[in-house]
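Extended Data, panel c. Modelled sequence:
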Amino acid sequence: MNAGSYSSEIVPVILAGGSGTRLWPVSRTAFPKHLTELIGSGSMLQQTARRLAALGPLSRLVTVAAAGQAVLVRRQLEEVDRRAATRVILEPCPRNTAAAVALAALDVRAREGREAVLFVCPSDHLILEPDVLMRAVASGAPAAQAGMIVTFGIEPSRPETGYGYIAAGAPLAAFDGSFEVARFVEKPPAAEARRMVEEGGHLWNSGMFLMRADKVLAELGRFEPELLERTRTAFEAAAGGAIDRDAFARVPSMPIDKAVMERCAEIAVVPCDPRWSDVGSWQALWEIMDKDAASNAIQGDVLLENSGGNLVKADGRLVALAGVHDLAVVETGDAVLVADKRDSEAIKTLVGRLAAAGRREADLHTRELRPWGSFTVLRRDAGFMVREVTLDAGAAIGPQRHAGRAEHWTVVRGRARVTVDGTETLLEPGGTRSVRADTEHRLENAGDVPLQLIEVRTGEEVDDV
């Protein structure tokens, strides 16, 4: 059976909520793992969307995302395919994956009918052999269309305590390649993980599911009726893709595994080995990256001497290691992490301390995306800030007025149209313009290529509110 046999009947769904701390400083609260580029081309979200294009036009893709990441998610999806950003459901607050799946199922049922089949997958997993996964999806599609919930189990390569497991039962005679699910196993201790791998018949739980919209909604109604009804209320009160905050905040928070998968009788598992990783730690990333003769995995400008087993990721500066082993050394524009690459809990605790101290490095990068483009903070100190600002073609900022700061712009690339108190000026590269505090102004990209400029802010309110 080829991967396209059932593609026209399958609606891909990406779950793109959440925030990560174990991959700090690359992953931040406002810029989590699925929006970062860790390995390969594009962010984890973009790689997921490209992978799902094998199921058909991305205009059918449904993405459930955090409202606070709406700009980032839409911009990244549009870079893959403009149609991919047309069905984004925005969660105003995190309520875990059961509510997210319910939102997607309600949307798909309303648009495509009760029997439409959803392929639900996380946005932050790496699949190095996507064709293998698509063949598994095609294999599981008949069971899903018949009303079963199909999970995908990854053939384990080692005893892993960080993943949940699925114990596969007998083959399903009516559905080639599918097996009964004997039980789900929580993240096990090391001895239990080793026993299950040696025994065989146990698979890593990938968190990917294939199921009809009406089936998952019926199961939610049976096992968690309050969750379903409150999610339905929030969905029906939605406006412009944004879910009603007050209604959604009352939805119980629960993972879909606990709400449905571990309680459903009509569930199957399709084993596969698409070289999958949830990339949940620097150790996990190191394991799947290419390595040198001393088992170092490196990205960027890195120099090593008498060092082995390290993961080194340099964003903008030379990073040099000498005489050290088994470290994660990660450099970004505003932070450097040096850690035992195996100790993800210590990194999580460290980020918690940063957040408790109100450090912006816990939440934000020096580069931030906006609906009009992006900016990178080059220098910040008391009373001033220097930023590199990029405006997309056709984009503009303002009109606006800031009582607590003045601004000075120097165009580096492109053409800018600056309007200050009604007076318009056209700036070419090298051109400058100053704006006094408490003065109405507007900045516009006057060309058909991105506008790049250096902005110097001075005053008491150099940060945006």
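Residues 7-274 form a domain with the Spore Coat Polysaccharide Biosynthesis Protein SpsA; Chain A fold (CATH 3.90.550.10). This feature is highlighted in the accompanying rendering.
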